[in-house]
Amino acid sequence: MLRSSRRVGARFVAFLRADSAGVRAGFLALLISSGGDLVTGVTFATISNTLNLLPGLVVLVPAAIGMRGNVFGGLGSRLGTLIHTGTFRLSARVDTEVGQNMSAAILSSLSTAALLAVLAKLMCEMLIKGPSISIADFMVVSVIGAILSSIVVLVLTVAVAAFCANRDLDLDNVAAPIVTAAGDIVTLPSLFVATYLLGIHLLTPVIAIACVVVGVGAGAVGIGARALPILRRIVIESLPILALAGVVDILAGITIQNRFASFLKYPALLVMVPAFLEDSGSLGAILAARVSTKLHLGTLGDGSWRAAVDDVMLVYLYAIPVFVFLGLTSSVVATVLNKASPGTVEMLAVSLIAGFMATTASVIVGFYAAVATYRFGLDPDNHSIPLVTSSLDLLGALSLILAIVILGLA
């Protein structure tokens, strides 16, 4: 047993040394994304009055934020595969591989935004007591927020891919945390800006109808684009799994909504929420992207856990400093902003306890999502990321709330 542990340890050290630049880039990307998501957390805590004035909107927030990560995280994973296979070429033409991937991401983002509005309203009616905003309001906030945020996240995703390709860095280690953090940072303010279009007589319903046309039209264009086979395949494969991911993300929103009183008691915990969910999803997405790439390249052996032990250990190694950093910085930010906090030790404890549970969930979900989609003949790049990030939004929210309950902060 001891010899076996030593062999595993020695192999893992060799694994880290073989890709030391990529591992460091992954650490840096996770820490940067955690810091960036604290900005989202501050925004989340700051707009709590708006969330109270627009009942049900908080249910849409994790789904809208998560969808940007799902769509553009999948784009990053596909671009990473193109880099590994030597076919990544930037071009302004839509009919190129990169062009079709970019177009598919935009069309998927817009069509799923319209779908999220409908799902959010339906699930609010079924699972939450009390009133909620109208379907027209959900549609305007969701689609306008998607339009504003998707452009920014698309540009960043392609820029990161080009940077990694030029510097010979592993995009699988970098794309998930950077892209999902960007989605978080940009999407929440975009949703907030879109709320200014609500409650305007005649104008709001007209904008809502236009949003429906944009959403349905985007899906129709993607599905009917027979002259662009890569784009069409991505949209057809992605939309069902993105719809499922949207349902799971909305359940995460309902979970937070139902425990919102705990977060209002200590707004410092609210500051932690976006970064915690993003980090949980990023860790799972990193593993899924690494496994996905190895499946494409045929280097995963028999596809069992043993072939991915080094990747699993890397995820846990990433998790330790990330959740320590998150617990400490959330407490510091809350203190600076004069937000009520249970204390630095308690914040660190919440982050580490919930982080351990979420990391374990991310490893299980990330690995099996990549392997299962590949074995069913599906493209792991189109299915693994949405499955992983949406599942971990829900599991991360549950882990966070469970840690709060365990520590008696509820």
Describe this structure in words.
The protein has helices spanning 2-18, 20-46, 48-53, 57-84, 97-127, 135-167, 171-194, 203-224, 229-258, 260-265, 267-297, 309-336, 344-375, 380-406. With 410 residues, it is mainly α. The chain has one domain (2-406). Helix 2 (20-46) runs antiparallel to helix 11 (267-297), helix 6 (135-167) runs antiparallel to helix 7 (171-194) and helix 11 (267-297) packs parallel to helix 13 (344-375). The model has no long low-confidence stretch (mean pLDDT 84).
Strand content: under 5%
The tally of helices reads 14
Percent helix: over 70%
User: Number of folding domains?
Assistant: 1
Shape, please? globular
* Whole-number mean pLDDT: 84
What does the oligomeric state look like here?
A: single chain
Poorly predicted segments = none
Largest sheet: none
Give the helix/strand class.
mainly alpha
Separation, N- and C-terminal Cα atoms: 42 Å
Number of strands: 0
SSE order and pairing:
Blueprint lengths: L1 H17 L1 H27 L1 H6 L3 H28 L12 H31 L7 H33 L3 H24 L8 H22 L4 H30 L1 H6 L1 H31 L11 H28 L7 H32 L4 H27 L4
